[in-house]
Amino acid sequence: MSDELVRCEGVTMVFDHHTILREIDVSILRGQTVAVIGESGCGKTVFMKTIVGLVKPTKGTVSFDGRALNDMTLPELTQTRKRFGFVFQNAALFDSMSIFENIAFPIRQNEIASESEVQQRVMQLLSEVGLPTEVAKKYPSALSGGMRKRVGLARALILRPELIVYDEPTTGLDPIMSDVINELILETRRRYPVTSVVVTHDMHTARKVADRVLMFYPRRRLEAGEPQILFDGSPSDLENAEDRRVRQFVRGEAGERLKEISLESSSLSL
Ligand SMILES: Nc1ncnc2c1ncn2[C@@H]1O[C@H](COP(=O)(O)OP(=O)(O)OP(=O)(O)O)[C@@H](O)[C@H]1O
User: Fold this and answer.
1) Do residues 221 and 239 share a domain?
2) What's residue 223's pLDDT?
3) Could you identify which of 42, 51, 76, 226 might form a hypothetical disulfide with 216, taking C-beta atoms 3.0 to 4.6 angstroms apart as the criterion?
4) Of 110, 113, 109, 139, which Cα lies nearest the Cα of 124?
5) Ligand 1: distance of its center to the CA of 54 in Å?
6) Are residues 170 and 245 both part of a single domain?
7) Cα 44 to ligand 1 centre (Å)
8) In testing the pocket of ligand 1, which one of 19, 39, 45 has its CB within 8 Å of the most ligand atoms?
9) What is the number of alpha carbons within 13 Å of residue 45 lying toward its C-beta?
């Protein structure tokens, strides 16, 4: 079995004549936790959706466990998607379903477990994400944002995915609840041999949960011929990255961007 779980080769994504991703070559190893950072609009979410086959690249190939998603038939792709878990930014729970039903949803859709097994898995996952069993009977509207995120994580884990993608897992949470989510991401990795991709703006999350960080840069602001991934390395090397744009991003300094914004607005007023 190869160490590589995901491979992107020359992945390019164009929307309405705008190139969002250009020639992305990345491979993600089994068990890695990769944080994807970069300023708003640089294509982090599009990249994440591409690697789990939610969107098809305009050009290039994404392979999962040695097989190109592009070459798969629809039933094969559906089968492969069961090996992915998604934790969406807003938890994306079904409001009309109880928490129990929300967590059980993927397993029921796939009809691969008896009712007693479903019951046991849901209760175990509730406890793993630190929620009391009474929550099972409640509805999403009765839960705080942090609790909903934990339910979203439990639901993503129910099919025991090999790859889990987190879209902005801590957005909208207070610092304490953000750290609870970070700890859960770490705990999930300790418990299961899962590979994780975490799209985040939160540098604390990137440093804490990831063993590798990819920083994307908006394609339109790259110099000709520059690769779109400005940084690919360990979180501890971010602070002293060679590229000034990476250092400015991780320190939260507007730097060159401030000058660019002033230039953009003065050219607009011409
Ligand atoms: N389905 C789509 N159709 C057209 N344009 C799209 C589509 N999906 C994304 N885009 C565009 O692609 C660009 C990158 O979007 P993406 O959501 O990946 O950015 P991001 O880096 O995740 O930003 P943020 O941090 O703000 O979430 C944006 O300009 C967005 O409008």
Assistant:
1) yes
2) 85
3) 42
4) 113
5) 14
6) yes
7) 8
8) 45
9) 10
Same domain (yes/no): 197, 247: yes
- The complex's ipTM works out to 0.95
Domain that holds residue 149: 89-160
Are the C-beta atoms of 164 and 33 separated by less than 8 Å? no
> For the chain, how are helix, strand and coil distributed in percent, rounded to 5?
45, 25, 35
| 53 conformational bin, left if phi > 0, alpha if psi -120 to 50, beta if neither | left
**Residue 184 placed within a domain:** no
Mark the ranges of the chain whose per-residue pLDDT is less than 70: 1, 111, 255-270
How many other C-beta atoms are found inside a 10 Å radius of the C-beta of residue 98?
Answer: 16
pTM of the model: 0.90
pLDDT at 264: 65
Q: Say what the pLDDT of residue 258 is.
A: 66
Q: Tokens for 25? A: 């070559």
- Distance between CA atoms of residues 99 and 90, nearest Å: 15
H or E, element range at 68: strand 67-68
Give the closest residue (by CA) to ligand 1 atom 27: 40
- Rounded Cα distance between 171 and 30, Å, is 26
Domain match, 113 and 2 both: no
78 and 105 share a domain?
no
